[in-house]
Amino acid sequence: MSTETKGLGRSLNRSLVTWFALIALLACGAVGVLTYVSQSEGIQNTGYRQLESLRDTKIEVITRWANERGADVSLASRRDVYVDFCRANGIGEQGDESRTLAAMTRLRDAYGYHAIFLADPSGGTILTTETTHVAGENLPRRQRYLHEALTERTFVVSDVLISKVYHKPTMFFVAPIVSPDTGELLGAIGFLANMEQSLYPLVTHTEYLGETGEVLLANENLMAQSPLKYQQDAVTKVTLDAEPIRMGASGKSGRIAHDDYRGERRCCTARIEAEDSC
Which fold would CATH assign to domain 67-197? Predict the structure, then answer.
């Protein structure tokens, strides 16, 4: 073999080694990128699964809380003490006011309601655990839910509202009171839930979202129904115009990385729960 041929062989060998090295480095780089992307996706998926688990747990808490309040008012509407008082009022007789009010007060205090009240078939308040002047106040939202419960003879629950009396978040739970003997409509019983005492601590408190995360509630109109971490006095006053909220309000469940109501990028999960009685 000539010297020229030997030189060409060494040059070719060096070129091949160089190319093989470059290909190997590219392959290692590709594996490194794929590994990084895979790990990033894995971390994100783990985060989403934790969010979904927390979301579903909170939904169970809310559902159980609402069912318990619904059971309270439904059972109360059939209790003799309230049926008898409404029946007596309907025929112009004097019911046992002290006994009835004592029963209402015990129920209010035991389960943390703002107030419990009884109404006649026209929606007029006939007895309440509130101060006497409240019965004569103009309370249009209370009248609205009373009217619906009385005309439809059905259990009614409101969105979260700011009470005109207590100036705090509340929900109305109202049920008609019907004579068990004749089916006659005798009146209605209503409960005003104390959201700050009974529901919000169960929903908004969590140890798993760090310093910046939060659990929040919104209705189908995107209105805040629970306190916000980054905006004071938000309940029923702030519209949460963010894609995760819109997604939940439109009936969709899922995962999304999107700006929140502050414009901050977050990993979010959304889910809507239908309430037939709302």
Answer: Beta-Lactamase (3.30.450)
Q: Kindly tell me the burial class for residue 188, based on how many C-beta atoms sit within 10 Å of its own C-beta (0-12, 13-18, 19 or more).
A: buried
Note the pLDDT of residue 153. 95
Closest CA to 134 of 164, 99, 101, 102: 164
Is the Cβ–Cβ distance between 216 and 240 less than 8 Å?
yes
104 touches 200 (CB < 8 A): no
Give the span between the Cα atoms of 192 and 160, in whole angstroms.
10
Which token pair is 68?
Answer: 């318990």
Is the distance from CB of 211 to CB of 230 less than 8 angstroms?
Answer: no
Kindly give, in sequence order, each residue whose CB lies less than 8 Å from that of residue 88, ignoring residues fewer than 6 positions away. Answer: 94, 95, 96
- Residue 275: alpha-carbon gap to chain centroid: 11
In sequence order, the 6+-apart residues with CB closer than 8 A to the CB of 103 are: 79, 81, 82
Q: Which of 121, 122, 85, 120 is nearest to 101 (CA)?
A: 85
Q: Please answer whether residues 215 and 58 qualify as being in contact, where contact means their C-beta atoms are separated by less than 8 angstroms.
A: yes
| Chain segment 107-166, per-residue pLDDT in tens | 999 988 999 999 999 999 999 998 766 655 678 888 899 999 999 999 999 888 888 888
Determine if residue 263 is left, alpha or beta; phi over 0 gives left, psi from -120 to 50 gives alpha, anything else beta.
Answer: left
Write the DSSP string, 201-260: HHHH--SSSTTT-----B-TT-BB-S--SSSSS-TTT-B--SHHHHHHHTT--EEEEEE-
Q: pLDDT for 88-101, tens place per residue?
A: 999 999 899 999 99
How far is the C-alpha of 175 from the C-alpha of 108, rounded, in Å? 16
Residue extents of the structural domains in the chain: 67-197, 209-278
Distance CA 175, CA 94 (A): 23
Distances (CA, A) of 51 to 212, 240, 247: 14, 19, 16
- The answer to whether the predicted template modeling score (pTM) of the entire model surpasses 0.85 is no
